[in-house]
Predict the structure of ABC transporter substrate-binding protein.
Amino acid sequence: MRTHTASADAGTAARTGAPPRRRPRSAVVPLAALLAVVLLAACGKSGTPPPKGPKPKDLPSYQVATDVNLDSPTFRSAKSRGKLVVGTKADQPYVAAQDPATGYYSGFDVEIAKMMAASLGFGVDRIEFKTITSANRETSLQNGEVDYYVGTYTINDNRKKLVGFAGPYYIAGQALLVRKDDKSINGPQDLAGKKVCSVAGSTPYQRIVANYPKATAVAYDSYSVCVDNLISLQVDAVTTDDTILKGYAAKVPDQLRLAGEPFSKEPYGIGVPRGDRTFRLALDDAIVAHEQNGDWKRAYDSTLGLSGVPAPPPPPVDRY
Ligand code: GLU
């Protein structure tokens, strides 16, 4: 277990947005492999195959803008580099996940990242995705490691002191994932004396520590480690956004369930370098344009929508 002071991204792996052919060297592979073992086990038990993730051929494609010019340092450096570098997650099914065999990233947030790139004039073959954990998002934007970040990133005032946010483009809510046979947890009020796993630097972890002091909060770098620990009885619950937990529950529905209702609002934003207002407002415009032309809904339906919840209306963008 690591505490929330951890760590460099051991799992950082860079890949373009186009389906690649090479094997990644990413440290997320063992976690994904572990999940695959769980899936196989679940599959054998119930006799039903696990739900399918988004297939590249089922995903929408986005019209790439031409002649884009922005008075933005972030945009200019991406232009001269010839590609965008986009931070995201690698182990959140339906939201942002990396296929361990191909290195291909998929999920709703990955689609949002591609829409933004298209509006900036970059096709999927000119996006390099980088896996960045929750705790390292702000630093990666501050030191220019990524041009923007799309990965279940809640907009809040503390983070706004460090980075800028376009959006929101979706509103999630903190929830709880438990073992299916454990009937003792049905909401955050039942967490006293329980071991609750989350990720360092995340708002759900901070909320448990601040508002539910009778729970024992443990933090790792990624939610998939928490899920492994839940299945192997080392923790009693995993807490983070419902979007993320639904993806894990859908993978092993005979072992895991969401307990109770969401108990926070997590407005998802696209993280950008704080001083680059032009870039932030360009992404706000891009979000609205892709909501209006139907791309947002098509992307939702082919990714997060696979977990069974119909697309909500997108939230209004907050141009600050
Ligand atoms: N949305 C929450 C956050 O930004 C939890 C998900 C995550 O860790 O990415 O902290």
